[in-house]
Amino acid sequence: MLSLLIGSAMMAQSRTTLFEEHIDGTSMPAGWNIMGAGQNNWSVSPTNVAGGDANELLMSYAPTFNSTSRLVLPAVDLTGYESVVFSFRHYLDNYSGGHILGVATSSDNGATWNQGWQQNYSADGGHLVAEQITTPDMGKENVRFCVYYTGNSYNIDAWYFDDFEIFSMENADLKLTKVLVPSIVANGAPTNVGFEVINHGSSQAIMVEASYQVNDEEPVSQIFATNLSSLGSATLQFETPFQVLPGSYQLKVNILKMNNAEDDDATNNEKIVNFACAYGTTDRIPMIEHFSSSSCPPCVAVNTMMNTFFSNNVDRFGYVKYAMNWPGNGDPYYTQEGNVRRSYYGVSAVPDIYIDGTQRSSSGFQGSFNNAAAIPAYADIRGLYTIEGNVVHISFDVMSYVAMENVRMYVIVNEKETKNNIGGNGETSFHHVMMKMIPDAYGTTLTLDGCETRHFDFTQDMSSTHVEEMSDLEVVVFLQNNGSREVYNSHFLNNGGDYPAPVENLMVTVEDNREMGVATASWDAPAGVTPLGYKVILNGEVVEELTTNLSYSFDIEDGEFSVVEVQAIYDGYTSVMAASSVNYVWSTAENSNVKCQLMPNPANGQVHIFANENLTEVRVYNTLGMLVSTVKANGSNQNLDVTKLANGIYYVQMDTESGATTTQRLVVSH
């Protein structure tokens, strides 16, 4: 729960920022309250529809009112200020007609409200509002701001709000509000960096100089012609992209100058975000989540459209339909688990459809789906389910090409077609209806490492669900970032058959230390089943369509990074990929007289390094090319502790005083 004390918050902010709130908690921030109508319409939603980070405030249409509802912020001290700027993000999910949104102030705790800004909105869309407020309350000690809505709440579906700020306007002040870079990027692919700025100053921003920096690499700078008016905002993109190898990274963006000079508030000029680079990609199977009801007349046309979509896109999607308990008496197959998902997305009206966690219109749905399917996926899911009486047995594997945190894994049992949940809209047949979420609507929280394969088994008794025919079930699994709502991938599991087990113990080794080495990927056959063979992919290219060998060799140059993927092929289906990589370095010493020796090798505790000149730094890399240890050295002998390293092959890179670097292979075996 977020606790906001205005006095201490002001001390932590710059001299221009009087109030700032980004709704990071799960409940209404301290000191905020609702005045007028709509006391029960406001809540904190775990979404990011308004354009900020999750969470955000949500005003729902229900319970309906036809009046004014005020979202009231804590009091701020405006002594000495003739005017201030009030800014926030919002997104209207409209149902019908126009709606009045405004900002007002009060210095008598809400007895009197003075209007500072107002606008009418009548269409779906997001906006960044930044308006100068000059009301009779300026200059007073205890001033409360409110965002107010006036109208009939029935005519909206939902209204989202985030990133509230009150600040005084300087002459020249640009604020960096967002950094735009994917949370996951592809191995070696050029990646663009964008950012959003708002002109907090009174002067026009004719030009902006900015830079970005990945980890400790050399910053990339660029001058942008903007002609950005006071309180205007813009999204800019650097011309020079970056490319990185797999791993975790930090990206820093800085506003360096405005109009060729430093601006008046340097505290809002920098933002840092984290991202990861994946070892590979796989085909995306977009996950469709459809909120509907058999008592909803407008749902009929959308259900008809979706039935056509099913026929035209066989095996291309994951899907679940959540039955809601409204309008009217709602759908009799409503469950509390479906309600949890409704709350997660802030769904307030049906029909409502999401593709990979993003709300999509039924109009142009095929195009939206095709766009989603074209985005590479960084995780894969494969497995099967069997039915025994009223019990469903589920087994599957998840493989991730990138380290993932805050991941929720959802396992859902649907009935392919239901006919008994008739609710009055004229339909008698409904498809892919959710019956049970396993273990519940909150899924299973996971932390995944890059190139890691995880196996899962679930058993579910369906006796207490709405299932009509046990033989008509299907199981879909998907992975979702619980914060951003991004869905990483989905998959319907096979019904019966042999389990599509992946290969085991995939490893890439290099034969010896030469400028051109021979790398060998080797693996073990899956236990308990016999695949037809194996597909081998090297650096994204298929090099073996179907081999029965348990190894594959290839040439690798000094300094080359390679990723090998192996997939077990069965009759009509496949396993998840197994992936491994090698960052091949032998000896890049500029001085051929530099010699280093590691003893013992293999090692399980302390490794002793002996060199014929003084060492300055020792770095240890795993076979994925990731830095796992760094030791500062001062002398020709150095000890290296490997007790905390897992068994496997590592590369020890050593810098010397002469500026030379040499690398040797180390085997850790406990």
Overall 3D shape: flat
Residues in helix, %: under 10%
- How many β-strands, per DSSP? 44
- How many structurally independent domains? 5
Rounded to the nearest angstrom, the distance between the terminal CA atoms is: 45 Å
CATH superfamily of the largest domain: Glutaredoxin
Structural class: mainly beta
Give an account of the 3D structure.
With 670 residues, this protein is mainly beta. The chain folds into five domains: 6-167, Jelly Rolls, CATH 2.60.120; 174-277, Immunoglobulin-like, CATH 2.60.40.10; 287-376 and 405-477, 3-Layer(aba) Sandwich (Glutaredoxin); 504-583, Immunoglobulin-like; 596-668, Immunoglobulin-like (Sandwich), CATH 2.60.40.1930. It is 6% helix and 51% strand. The strands form ten sheets. Strands 1, 3, 4, 6, 9 and 11 form a six-stranded antiparallel beta sheet that branches. The chain is flat, with a radius of gyration of 29 Å. The two termini are 45 Å apart.
Quick overview:
The protein is mainly beta and 670 residues long. Helices cover 6% and strands 51% of the residues.
Offer a few descriptive terms.
single chain; 670 residues; mainly beta; Jelly Rolls; Immunoglobulin-like; Glutaredoxin; 5 domains; 6-stranded antiparallel sheet; 5-stranded antiparallel sheet; 4 helices; disordered N terminus
